[in-house]
Amino acid sequence: MSGAAAPERGRFVVVEGLDGAGTTTQAERLAGALRERRGVAVELTKEPTNGPIGAVLRQAIEGRLTLDPAALALAFAADRADHLFNPVNGVVAALEAGRWVISDRYVLSSLAYNRGGTTTREWLAELNRHAIAPDLTVFVDVDPEICVRRIGARSSADELFHSREQLVAVDRNYRELIDAGHVHGPLERVDGSAAIDAVEQAIWAAVERTLG
Question: How far apart are CA 139 and CA 108, in angstroms?
Answer without folding.
Answer: 10
